[in-house]
Design a protein that fits this description.
This protein has 100 residues and is mostly helical. Helices cover 40% and strands 8% of the residues. The chain has helices at 2-9, 34-48, 57-68, 95-99, and strands spanning 18-21, 79-82. It has a two-stranded parallel ribbon with strand order 1-2.
Length: 100
């Protein structure tokens, strides 16, 4: 949908982008049972997320600020994964292979 609208609105100089946040503190994650929260946090800290932590609302807000800035005027039709690199990791291969 982002790509479709980006093409449809480009001639009006309107950019269309989206942010796909990963696990984020102070989010819906906080409504899950503590055991689930702890396991998710441990998974990120174990190396499955290259940044080694959950995101923060400020991390996601910074991506929004970027896309709203004049400097992003040439960016359109993109979905930015604000996930600390988690989407780069392959759950099939062990971490020691991926991290080299």
């Amino acid at each position: 949908m982002v790509r479709y609208f980006a093409v449809a609105l480009a001639n009006r100089r309107i950019t269309v982008n989206a942010i796909s946040p990963g696990s984020t503190d102070d989010s819906v994650l906080n409504s899950l049972p503590p055991e689930v929260q702890n396991r998710a946090r441990a998974w990120h800290e174990s190396g499955w997320t290259p940044m080694g932590r959950f995101g923060t609302p400020a991390d996601i807000g910074n991506a929004v600020v970027l896309l709203c800035s004049e400097g992003a005027g040439w960016i359109t039709g993109q979905v930015i994964a604000g996930d600390g690199g988690a989407s780069l990791m392959d759950t099939i291969f062990p971490l020691d292979i991926q991290r080299g």
